[in-house]
Amino acid sequence: MGYLILILLNLLFPLIGTGVILSFLFSSRRKLLKNLNEELSERFVFSSKNRICGGYIWLHAASVGEVKSAVKIAADLKSFYKRPALITTSTAAGRAAAQKEPVFDVSVLMPMDFYYLVKRFIKIYAPHRLFIIESDLWPNMIIACGRNKIPAAVINGRISKRSASRYKLLLPLVKLVFKNISFVCAQSGEIKKLYLNLAMPEEKLYVSGNIKYDMLDAEPSRVENAENLLNILNWRGSKIITLGSTHEKEERAALSCALELNDVKFIIAPRHLERKEQIVKMIKASGIKFAILSDILNNINIDNSSGGAYAQVLLVDAMGWLGAFYKVSDIVFVGGSISKNGGHNFLEAAILRRPVFFGKYYYNAPDVAKEMLKSGGGVLVDENNFADIIRKFISQTDLIESAAASAQKTALSFKGAAAKTMAVVKEHEKETRT
Questions:
Q1: What is the tens place of the pLDDT at every residue in 129-142?
Q2: Is domain 223-413 given the CATH code 3.40.50.2000 in the classification?
Q3: Is 17 exposed, middle or buried (0-12, 13-18, 19+ CB in 10 A)?
């Protein structure tokens, strides 16, 4: 039955491929697709100009986040196998991110998941091993590797409950795909259970943690610049809370808190910078005095109608500053957790020895959130009690310090996933050779 579904998908490919081409040609973003010919060439494996040799360690990552997660493990795999690294991505943004990382010798777009195209891709690049990062499981890619005696594995494995329920609708195909996977290194025990429920044999499953956390940086860049900004804003000596990766509901909660706690300073770093104008209107409507990071960086006079040097809120409208602002704050709130987006990176702030506030919607990283709450390094808040909990913490320095120490200790406990993953890789290589 699994093969029947696979054959059907491949028979439908001409329609799917035509749809993809038309979506490119008639996209409203067509003018922005400057490399359309190159992208289609890679999607349909018309070109192999980047090929430098055969025998690659092939890593596949969906997009930018997975590419960043793959950097450390790619270096370890290259060192172990003594082979160059080829990375494929499902998005052009992912490929662009990979091209900036020296560890990847070749970075190309993943061909469309049509058996003939994947088979042609394998013939051209002659990969030695395939490692899929997180959750981008393409049936033809995995099965073609199996038929060509290329061991395939999933590392930093992730699967959501929603995806697992969808996979069950195609369980015969899923079983066929899993048959061609040597092993899965899952991020958590909960993810391992989801794989088990999809009939992945338990002997193929390991819990290795999240390799993304191995890249936690306790010394972010621009900290000195952030401290200078505090001087410009006349915030020295004030209690500061940075709200990172926020969405609208969380920004409204922050502004409500600011009105109630006018002696506390708030730094708001939205998840999506393109929402800047919307957020500016929101702040102006609240009547709170504020400053905008880009105005300060561009030497624009900040003593204007927005409040300037008397600001209570700083709106961050530039990339690359979040870690620095976390570092100079007393408390951190991580967004996406009140706004039902699943929560963003809690440990990015925790590793900097800061108490981490977040809402109850932390399904993107439940293992991390639960450990943070258990240790006391994480504090659960909502839009109704946010101000009260901030007031409680800023009135007790020892409470902030205790939570901060627990947060950092928890963050450190999540490191080491790359080493655990490599131990599994090496063990399987031994079994393959015996």
A1: 999 999 899 999 99
A2: yes
A3: middle
